[in-house]
Predict the 3D structure of the following.
Amino acid sequence: MLSRRQFFFAEWLFVLCVLLTLGGYLSYSAHQDYQRTERDELARLAQQASIVENNLVPQLAATNKALLSVIEDLPRWQQEVDFRQRLIRRLEVLNAIVPGVRTLLVVDARGEIIASSNPGAVGSRVTDREWFRLAQAGNSPQTLYLTPPFKSLVSPTSVAMVRSLAGSKGEFAGAVFAALHPDFAKVLLSSVVNTPATFASLVHANGTVFASTDDTLVGKDIGVPGSLFSRHRNSGQSASTHIGVAPAIDVKRIIAHRTIQPASLGMNNYLVVGVARNFDAVFAPWRAGAALAAVMFGALALAAMGGLALYQLLRLRNAAEKVRAESALTQSQQRFSTAFAAAPIAASIARLKDGCFVEANRNYERLFGWKREEIIGKSSVELGVWPDAATRAPWARAMLEHGELVDYETIWMHKNGQSRHVSLSAALTNVDGEACVLAYATDITARKQAEEQINVLAFYDQLTLLPNRLLMLDRLKQAMTMGERSGYFGALLFVDLDHFKVLNETLGHDAGDVLLQQVAQRLGQCVREGDTVARVGGDEFVVILASLSSNQEDAAAATEKAAEKMLAQLNQVHQLGGSAHSSAASVGMTLFQGLNTSVDDLLKQAELAMYRTKETGRNGMRFFDPEMETAVLKHVALEKSLRMALQAKEFVLHYQPLVVGAGQLTGAEALVRWQHPQRGMVSPAEFIPMAEETGLIVPLGQWVLETACAQLAQWALRPERAHLTIAVNVSAHQFRQANFVEQVLGALKLTGANARRLKLELTESLLVSNVQDTIEKMFALKAKGVEFSLDDFGTGYSSLTYLKRLPLAQLKIDQSFVRDVLVDPNDATIAKTIVTLAQSLGLAVIAEGVETQAQKDFLASHGCHAYQGYFFSKPLPIVQFEAFAQRA
């Protein structure tokens, strides 16, 4: 039988064995928790790096697509007169719709900026920029060059995407450049920074930080040998994770890297996204848990040994040792409370059945506003932590089913009534025989807001907050798919504001922005819930009406009714700051049923209908008609033929005689004709408006001017023709060219023609705007001997005041007055008045369209003795005109 001493020793040995076993188990568990914490953190950081990559790759693809679209359109646009203006406008539009792009440039082979989304940069040279030398040296249009980070005027670091331009022989012809916006990249990085001491960076392959949520890292080189970044780069892997000290800040971190180099873009370089978290922050909860476990183990050990000692002493001194044991237990509880309260995140213990709090640490006050004393013993729903019982119910069921939850996202309420997005990790425990939940809460509201901000930037127009073109296309596809299943018709409406450019030029772009916001609001009031109103351009809106009716006529009627409502709303007065503005719009409409028509074709149909509305008076609406597409194709074919005709020199000049008195020849008016190889002679009424619309009137007018001057030079060599003049019509578009005076003088110098034999005929429309510029150009040419005639006088809106200021030599009575001068008293009065006015101003006068002897006699009797018309001769080719001149 054991002695008392041996029995005491055996009891102590047994307790020590139990404690050692328990201590070993706790150490093993702590080690396992450490490894799991490290593994989970690395996996989370790798996932966050992948999220950034998934968000950044579409943005890089969109920027690359924008560069390719400019390269694709450049050869066609370079043939147009307003090439640079159109290119600048395209860059401005692309800069507005492509997320993350700060600046778009197009430079030529000399390094001169010929177009920019920032017009102030046009004309500057970039030959000293590394990206230009990179594109020039590589000279590979198939390669997308990703430049190293460089400093700009607006940012300490910028990264650009560049593509080379190739000439007709493959030589270097310039480059297209898109600078990425570091702030946009920072927004993408911020979306994954949802835990304390977490940082995300975007690094160039050379190790320079392009963007970071830690501003102190931006622009630094973190690619030094031995760094975490160089370890990833040397690994040769697209994704890697590492633990070590970051040299730039001398802090130990856990980091996940991911290389971003989409194969489809053909990039010559790559970016690396790194998401890191401070090592101490990662393992703070583990350390707190380990400390808590150690405290609890220590408390348990003390309690066990104290209990054993108490048990032993009880047999000796029952009353005294009982008091000591209670004191030891109290101290143990205080240690547990101290460790619980010191936890670095919001921690709580609540009963599972009713959500009443049993314990909470001081971080609850910091995160949610409630003090510990206010929540203990109260229901979490009653207190308002959970918005309501329905929101808590799924959480409670999940806890019963799984016993623990990790990163469960839900909504909790702050004491001030504001909602908070929280991430909960919890496990079931037992307190005094009741099932309780030990929970840790993290506030992730900032991360949620960043995600929402990214969504808004990607899919919504920043001015009007309407869906942008990208989201509109997705909504349209959904509506078409819905119609395919249901058999219902939908409608697409293209709304374009009338005279919006005039508003911007008169009241300024700020007023224009206010108008666009009001238009967006009013359009939204005109559609049903579930319909879509989107802004797709400057003053262009698209409305999608889904599921109107299975009957086409009913669907068309509903569409027309909706359009009428929109026009009525837009026609109401808009208050733009301190001024009222009346606005109107042109609407094009088309119906769709299912997926029979492509999205692009639907948009083209609605846009064609809108343009037809503008052509027929604006402020109205029109359904798409297939004949519109036919007319557009014909219009495009005519424009293409006209361009080819200029290159193939298919134009000829006919000359209509100008006579005085009984028929004495004084000169001719040069009239252009198109000798088409298949269609024969094309009427000027058909191709001149097209030339005006496309700007081809400028090169065509220059050809007419040079050809007429060449004819004058030939006549100057023949004494019998040397006195003849040639009148050349000048279009308003041609006259308003900044170098018009130089073009006329250049034609005279090139051909050697006498300037005093050249007469330029101007229309009254030139006098409506920029009168001072018109006067200066006319006087400059007048000083060289060129004369001016005011064509079609009386049909425009010129002021008689201008006639006194302009260096005119002649007024021409329009043929519309001459035609009925013998039968219409009004036309006769106008003709006589023009003659009298010309005489009073000391100007010559000539009548066009004279077809009968009676018309000539009437004009002669009232003082007009110069004529032009079929009574004398129709316009003639030069050979026939020479024969006419010989007879005259």
Q: What stands out?
A: The first strand starts at residue 101 and ends at 108. DSSP finds 28 helices and 32 strands in the chain. The radius of gyration is 42 Å.
